[in-house]
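The freezer alarm interrupted the setup, so I double-checked each line after restarting. Inputs confirmed:
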Amino acid sequence: MKRGERITNSILEGGLKLSALLAIFLIFLIFIFIFKEALPIFTNPGVRSEVDLRDLFASSVWQPVSDHPRFSLLPLFLGTLKLSLIAILFATPLALGAAIFTAEFAPRALKETIKPGIEILAGIPSVVMGAFALLTLASVLQGIFGWTMRLNAVNAGIALGLAIVPTIYSVADDALRAVPGSFREAAYALGSRRNQAIFRVIIPVALPGIFAGFMLGLGRAIGETMIVLLASGNAAILSLDPALSTRSFSATIAAELGEVVFGSTHYAVLFFIGALLFVITFIINLIANLVVERFKVRLAGVA
Amino acid sequence: MKKYWLLIPIFTLVTAGAALAGKAITIKGSDTMVILNQRWAENYMNNHPGAVVQVTGGGSGVGISALINGTTEICASSRTMKDSEQKKLRERWNTLGVGIPVAKDGVTLFLNASNPVSELSLEQLKNIYTRKVKNWRELGGSDSPIILYGRESSSGTYVFFKDTVLLGADFAPETQTMPGTAAIVNAVSKDPNGIGYGGVAYASGVKHLKIRKTAGAAAYDPTQENVKSGVYPLSRDLFFYLRKTPSGDTKKFIDWILSPAGQEIVTKVGYFPVK
Amino acid sequence: MKGWDKFFALASGLCVLVIFAFLFWIIFIIARNGAGTVSWEFFTAAPVEGMTEGGIFPAIYGTVFLVLVMTVFLMPFGVMAGIYLAEYAPQNSRLTQAIRLAVNNLAGVPSIVFGLFGVGFFIQYAGRGLDRTLGLETVFSQPCLLWAAATLAILNLPVVIKTSEEAIKAVPLEHREAAFALGATKLKMIVRVVLPQAFSGILTGAILSVSRGAGEVAPILFTGAAYYLPYIPKLPTDQFMELGYHIFVLSTQSPDVDKTQPLLYGTILVLLLLTLALNTFAIGLRVRMRRKYGR
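Predicted 3D structure, all chains:
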């Protein structure tokens, strides 16, 4: 190999490594630049006179455009919590059930239809899901349950749940299929029935993977924006009642950033919410990813 | 990152070339007015070869700060300038700015078509949106809870309604805020107990409320006549703000906007002419 | 199968049924309400009369322009990172683990956070810096297609890195060894042997990210999407209309809800068909690839 070629090679290989490092770099960059815009809350005296950390976490009213603006994150936090809990409660049993069905019961041909079907569900853009919940689902749910508020946490939560079913399903399905066949055979050899094998052997072994799917779904539900913006009604009510209209962190940013003056208190608070969303979802994803890694290593050890 | 930054100078050259080609009139501001501004710009450019009018949105607040910072020539605003904003303008440019009403708009209240209530006073509206009145029975309707819909706090309509109807008081937290008038109309059309406000908009299943200024006064519909004459209590002007009295190309453009040709477009877009 | 076994088979099968019932319901509603609207004119005309009539051509055009620019940003970095992870990265080093963790975590960042990043970094920082350096007034320091595409590129980076890595790893070892035996350097082997074979896998990643890029609204809300433009964007520094954002606009901002409804469903149908077609194509490619390498 000529010297020139060697140098070109090492430059190109350096470029490959840099591209891979970009992922790490971006994570830091995202956090820094979102937090930077939120920084005036901590440093700027003018902004601090309108809002300080106590207001953000201790008071109870979100009223950002007012003679006395109040920026309490509490109703938004409760709203986000409510919505993602409903989504998770709706999606987890469905996705897990479907994963168990495809992994344990479905004949091969059926399996090959179910998986692409669920991938199609994953391909539905969230704005389409949101419009569906706003125009159709809300009326149907109100017809069934007779809620006074047509747009509410359950309506948005179910639409959110549908959006995260594919996430939970695919991770849970991977986890179930990763359980070595020898485990199953051992269970049958000991005289277990199929359901006993599933519930006493396969699910317990796959549990970390299932948990990771649950966490990834939760992370996505917390951050999902367009569905909530369109389908939840967006009223910042401090309540845990799922039949009331609900405002989330993500929808608040989407709805209010558009006309807010750059550099104002309201602008800084919206970026602070963004930073908070980033940190919360980062921790949830980190846990999920670490669990998946461990799970893979452990199974690789046994198999 | 290398390749990425290489692309930018290429785009830059092309863009800079385009930007330098003609001295453009720039309009920035209210999202309510973006469609209107762009229709004006489009028509004006078609009829006046060589003229360049650039339109961007971002909101009334954004437009006014751009006016103060000197990054736009015309600011489109769906509300009047605040004292604090005028102060900043004077500090920087030694002027109070020039506000020119270019169109009129009537903020409309929507009820479900099945609701027997058909007219309300401004004070009743205030009581409804501050949750002093919670049931339609108290307003002559059926015995059912009032469901509130409103615009997002970032919209000029929200600020106008808050100033004019709520007289500065805050909306009740139970108000469901929707990201646009159509979303409000849609919700009200499907909610027999709903009430919402926004720019003029239509849908089957929704009716427009007649508004009276005080308890004893006559009630008016948000029709073109009533908005133009100002008897409809929720009429508002849509403004162009400039730093100084317009001259040259800008004056020509604004004169054209106020001419019958320009005002015809106002009607097409769904607002009302100023004259 | 009997007793409890049968019960669990039925119960888990019911879960599948419920999911598919929702899926068909959504598709049915959209197809029924939108099918009447989709015509040649709908694809080729611009919205008129305050978006109560006309078509969605500018939104289709903007979407295509957007995903093209996104692909230009996205693919080089995504594929290069994929090559590094598959071919060079020492499998158990701390750094490799950190990169993998970062890629996985990047995939979980909420889309609205990417939107904020686009505003904070691209528009406020990079854009302002560029304008100042080049002495321009406001060209880069405002929402535009360039920044929206860059934001979407970051959002899709994990997808491309992962699919590229998977595709490259799937190329059989013998082929590489054959190349080495002929005296090729590692880099040459990758460019001449591995990449051509991994092409359909990498293409899968590109298609998946285009499909996702076409449907994501939250990241472009503040970085460049315009709700109505009387012209077609020519430069990456122009704002643009986009299908997903147009759906948001039609469902929230129209002055005449009844007249807009068919247009809304028509637009949803077009976007849905577009993403479905892209996804089906990607799934098909992946199935073919897996068969080819017997995995």
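Quick read of the result. The radius of gyration of chain B is 21 Å.
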